[in-house]
Amino acid sequence: MTNPKLEADIEAGNLSETTKTYLLEVYISEKYNRDKNVTSKYMEKGLLVEEDSITLYSRVMKKFFKKNESKLSNEFIKGTPDLYTGLEITEADLVIDIKSSWDIFSSSVEELKDYQEYTEGNEYLSEVLNKKVS
User: Fold this and answer.
1) How far apart are CA 12 and CA 113, in angstroms?
2) Backbone angles phi, psi at 67, to 5 degrees
3) In percent, how much of the chain has pLDDT > 90?
4) Can you give the pTM of this predicted structure?
C-alpha cells in the first residue's frame, strides 16, 4: 500500500486514498462473497502466451515444467504460482513465476521490483524457501 500524499496525513497516521479504496473493495468482497474480476490487455496477452513461455523456460532450463493449476489461499491472500519444483506445491523447493511482458518497455527493473510482492505472496502460500521470476 502507499503512504498518504500529505506529510500531515502521514504524521496523523491517516490512510492513503489507495489504501482506503482497497479496503472498501475487501469489505464489499467479504460482505457479498464476491471477487472483483480484474482484466486488461496486458493480462490477456500474458495468458495467451503463457504455455509458450513455460515451454521456452523448460527448454532453456533443460527440465520439463507444466503449468501449476493448484490455487492456494489463506485468510489473507490467494495465489496460483505458475511453476514449482518439489513433490507438491505446498511443499515446493522453489516457486517460479513466468512473466511475459507486453513489450520490451514494460519489463523494467522497477516493474519487476513491484512484481516481487506478488511472488512473495505465492511463496508464503506454498511455504517455499525460494522464488524466481523468469
Assistant:
1) 29
2) -60, 130
3) 35
4) 0.66
